[in-house]
Amino acid sequence: MLKQLLFGAMFTLVVFGGVQAQEKQKTTAIEKKVDELLSKMTLDEKIGQLNQYTSRWEMTGPAPAGSSEQEMLDQIKSGMVGSMLNVTGADATLKAQKLAVENTRLGIPMIFGYDVVHGYKTMFPIPLATASSWDASAAELSAHIAAVETAASGIHWTFAPMVDISRDARWGRVMEGAGEDPYLGSVMSAAQVRGFQGSDLILENTIAACAKHFAAYGFAEAGRDYNTVDISEYTLQNVVLPPFHAAVDAGVATLMNSFNVIGGVPSTSNPHLLRDMLKGAWGFDGFVVSDWNSIGELHNHGVAADLKEAAYLAIKAGSDMDMEGYAYIDHLKELVEEGRIDEALIDDATRRVLRIKYELGLFDDPYKYSKLDEEGLVLSEEHLAAAREVAKKSIVLLKNENHLLPLKKAGQKIAVIGDLADDKDSPLGSWRAQAVTGSAVSLLEGITNVITDNSAVVFERGPVFVSNTPAFQQHLQYNETDPSGIEAAVELAKKMDVVVMALGENCFQTGEGRSQTDISLKGYQQELLEAVYAVNKNVVVVLMNGRPLVIDWMAENVPAIVEAWQLGSEAGNAIADVLFGDYNPAGKLPMSFPRSVGQCPIYYNHFSTGRADDTGTVFWSHYTDESNEPLFPFGYGLSYTSFDYSDLQLSANEISANQKLNVRVTVKNTGDVDGEEVVQLYVHDLYGSIARPVKELKGYKKIFLKAGESQTVTFELDSDDLKFFTAWKVWEAEPGDFNLWVGTNSQTGLKGAFKLK
Ligand code: NOJ
Questions:
Q1: By residue range, what is the domain housing residue 651?
Q2: From ligand 1's centre to the CA of 519, what distance in Å?
Q3: 291 annotated active-site
Q4: Separation of 60 CA from ligand 1 center, angstroms?
């Protein structure tokens, strides 16, 4: 046995050593080519590589001023455009690429980028939903399939994953990230990078990823998109940056700046972030693209008097490519000629862009992705089946009293109520790339697909939810004037055994620019719910939403609540899998649900405060009109079975810096059905050089247990896991006492303690 193990280890070493040597050779070869090309380039040609335009046909930001389509085409032909975004489809990318390759002196191919956030045509769950699966392989698979479809449409690069930590459900972009926790956020970040980029960017089923928005964009004050961020270095290092670092460690090709300032310094012109940390300490050798005109917006922030100054600040700080800002193309040359910036800065940025183009194989064949056959690769049965799998795993069961769920496929009269229930579009989410409008399986379809007696299911819409036709660039208007439909829904509910109500948000309520001060149910949804519940208590609410919502009345009254987010192309089928028990839900919340919007930002890994305990007087840290606790905490989610935790054992009471602590717990499935459980490990560092969070997730394991089965789950902790950015501005584990919990969510668990010497 030992011999086998040794042989295995040696084999791994030899193979791994071989892979490393190959990697090194490849890197050296690419570096040589980059240097050779760079030495032939004029300053204008180099600056061209740093310039990115959107196609004028499909825009994801405010219209660019003063540049016609013809001007843009001419610029491409003269080598002034290194990259484009929003050019989609093999034909369009081929045409655009030809302009660059066939007309310019050096024939340098452009790199095409696009926001492929949770699928290209086959839509996967929104990232916040995928994070609810706590399943890295699910996140990796959805990114991989998105990459296959994106590449087949001629695109080389996605502006994803968004790895911004967010604690405030008012922010519309929480749907795009993995929620509030840096550990889970890092797992999901690395998984998506692996999924998009695969083992090698040269392969035809991989695309370059872009971790965004660097940094702290999710901490916008009051949850208002693009707003000021003012956080400490502590929060930046310990909470915001880990998922970016994880992306870099996973080999992410690019990063994107964020729109915000941190402590008055815009991220786009922040040398501490870009040069010291990212390109310095972390050794990142890909490139940084600005966000849409974020270089131009340095002027609006009040740190650059004009666009030239903005270009100066951004290139100095380390922003390599200018997205739709016209700052670099219009001003970098002048800045070099005036001697204000060294050409070496331009060389460095250009080198980074060329490096990724080489890694993608664009110099070997600039048209390689445009030649793939979209037909066979996009929206295949296999992709849709994967989307359904990931969607099932992303569902969180929030409440299920008296085993109302799962429902029966026969012998139960089911009312399906709510505008969202037959909505075939909203489940596709707001960052939907090239999803076909109205192509999702609706909840109603999902239900009718599985029940054996169709006459047992009757649908009533209730009041129409939104009163305009939502579109990506448009604000929603909710129906707040026409309650008709409530009565018919109530009449139906009276006659049926159980009511499935689809409530929540239209997909265009969340996403970029979609912040809200009120995150309760909009339109007539609350009235509809209360009216229906008044006549039939067997209500199952299926929530479809892109952010945690305030649903206190619902949580108090309604017996069953299923959090189904926006689950993509196969949404209805996946929800039906859960509603009828073909799949036992196992998702866990990646973000706390507030009881009231006034609690936002709300998150489990907060500090203690000096007055954390209720002293019986008014002078402690609390609200006088609301509890401090969330409605549903981070890590929370139920199953159709129950799990019992027992026998927590720690291998030692004390460990030294180079020792490992083994944490063991027994988990038993005590119910009648098989199920999965996410076993979560949290730690509290009792005293530190600065205050430490009351709990921090340090590990989790998703396990499957047959009914009645038990398993011992083991975690290994060492001082690396206990490191944090300390008062002395270093990453260190500080000796002292720690509490530890292993449990089913962030609020409960078996408790242990240990000391780090
Ligand atoms: C602005 C968004 O903030 C960013 O996430 C996106 O990638 C770009 N627009 C391009 O669409």
A1: 643-756
A2: 24
A3: yes
A4: 7
